[in-house]
Structure formats: C-alpha cells, structure tokens
Predict the 3D structure of the following.
Amino acid sequence: MTSAPKIGVLALQGDVREHIRALEEAGATAVPVRRQEELAAVDALVVPGGESTTIWKLATAFELIEPLRLRIKEGMPAYGSCAGMIMLADRIRGGIEGQETLGGIDMVVRRNAFGRQVDSFEADLDFAARGTIRAVFIRAPWVESVGPDVEVLGRTEAGDRIVAVRQGPLLATSFHPELTGDARVHSYFVEMVREL
C-alpha cells in the first residue's frame, strides 16, 4: 500500500479525536467508525481506551460486534489501547459477568490491573525497538500471559509486566500513546498497515 491508508477509529467511547490526530500525524487518513458501512470502508481500525464493558455494550447495541470480529478474523489490522487491548484479547480476567471481547490476540489480559483512577501514572518504557517512550497508564490492564505467536513489544520499567504486544496484524498497548503528543506508536501501526 503506497497511498495513505484509511484507518478507522471506533467512535463509541474514548479518545477518538486524539487517536485521529495521532494517526494523521503518522501519515494515515483517519475517520471515525460507528456503523457497519463505515467499518467496511477502512483498511484498519483503532479501538481506543475508555471502559471495556461500555465499548462492548455499545458495539453490541450498534450491531458492530460480529462485523468487527469477522474483519479481525479476516486479517484486518487493528490496534487497541488500554480498553482496546482488553477488546482484542482472547481471554480476560476481572471482567463483569458475561463480558465479551472481539478477540484475535492469544493472550490473557487483566482489567484495571494497575488499580483505580487514582492509581494512574506515567512511566518511560522501551517500545518495539523504537526507543524510550512516555507511557500514560489510566486504570490500565496488563497482560498476564501470551501464546507462542504473540510478540512482546514492551514491558514496565521493572520488566515484570507486559504492556505492549503484537500478533500478526494486531497491536495492543495497555497505555495511551494518543495522550502524549508522541506519534511513534501510531507510526508503528501505520507501517504495519502499509506492510499488508
């Protein structure tokens, strides 16, 4: 793909504008996605942070769950930040009764693993050989385990928690790069989309 990829941002809840800005800075054409026809028109998708149970319920109400799962299964690149990481996980811990995900990444993610809103923090970490980035964690999940096909792209400074992963065309971070003004994570995702 030589032209600017068209990347949607799931616009049901969360940092939609911030992701659109970061994607455009990274060289993509970015659009909000709320309907099936908008989903069908994009090359890739970002699932933003927010509240994973709310995103799941709204995606169900907008009749987007199955179309999203199908596009991911068919190989559409997708990037999930914070709650988006939870949505791309095959398995979650700490979810509410009956909570579902879109799946796609062979990992177990724990919701709100770093604590409540008051426990939010920022930290420096190495990301995908792109150097040190500033990561913003807000009621963030962490990855408890990954399958053999999942590449770990980032860990907390102590190295004890996985906070960024990739499996094929799917990328997920437990932090919010869209809030920092540093578009390197989004640039990495745009490069992934161009490669496919």
User: Anything to note?
Assistant: The chain has a mean pLDDT of 92. The chain has six helices and twelve strands.
